[in-house]
Amino acid sequence: MPEGPEIRRAAALLDATLAGRVARRLTFARADLQSRARELEGRHIVSVRARGKAILTRFEENRYLYSHNQLYGRWQVSEDGRQPKSRRSLRLSIHTGGPAAFLYSASDIAILMQADLASHPYLARLGPELLDTAVDEATVLARIEDPRFARRGLVALLQDQRFLAGIGNYLAAEILHHCRIHPAARLRDLDADRRQTLADACLALPRQSLATGGITNTLSRATALQQRGASFEAARFQVYRRAGLPCYRCGRPIEKARFVGKTTYWCPACQAKEA
Ligand SMILES: [Zn+2]
């Protein structure tokens, strides 16, 4: 499932492809949306931005196309406007006469006016966007101190976009390992130092991932591993998808396990205690 940095990169690609152009034609798999395509056709596309795991394409006159990638959604663009070959089902396409964008497999799509955004069931409940440069450590720490979130197991809470927007499965595993926090620990189990460390990592790791194309390992280590012949996939993570391999910090094998409803990767030595 795509996480904040991956959605953000998809939005940046769509923005570079579509912004400033006129949407000549839109196609929707759903008939109810297709019947409303004319609300957007012929209008300029202003911008494409990520909001949590959703993407908002803004058109002239405060009109928006909302799409959420869900588990398997995937955007593709083509410079010549032709549809890329895919075995996935096409849900939406945006044609400009030049480049075009295609959304496959994701069915959570809506045409909205600006006034609808504040009451949209997904958008209205999103927590602070970790990849927005305006979101700072104090904002994240205030969220961590909020008693509403004190009792939930962290590996699940971190992936709840209502808590903080931008973290999914791999980032949750990497952040908890980085902070030496047990996957099932709760915020109320953490002392002030650990809360601070967690706030720092919740900003730093997603931002590093965005900047590096997905690396959450220590950058110097990831570089050294790749220089020794490791693939990008093998070098990018500290614990995620590394079950059975030694922890970089203590040497004990990383384990794959399920805590509070989420399958994750962790080091039983470095992340031993729930406090
Ligand atoms: Zn370890």
User: Which distinct ligands sit in these coordinates?
Assistant: zinc ion
What is the structural class?
A: alpha+beta
Low-confidence segments, ≥5 residues, pLDDT <50?
Answer: none
Number of helices, counting only DSSP H or I runs of 4 residues or more: 9
The CATH class assignment of the largest domain is Mainly Alpha
Polypeptide structure, described:
The protein is α+β, with helices and mostly antiparallel strands and 275 residues long. The protein has 2 domains: 4-125, N-terminal domain of MutM-like DNA repair proteins (Alpha-Beta Barrel), CATH 3.20.190.10; 137-266, Helicase, Ruva Protein, domain 3, CATH 1.10.8.50. The protein has 9 helices and 10 strands. The strands form 3 sheets. It has a 4-stranded antiparallel sheet. Strands 2-3-4-8 form a 4-stranded antiparallel sheet. The longest helix is centred in the last third of the chain and has 21 residues, at 192-212. It is globular, with a radius of gyration of 20 Å. The chain starts with a helix and ends in a 9-residue tail after the last strand. Zinc ion (ZN) is lined by residues 247, 249-250, 252, 267, 269-270.
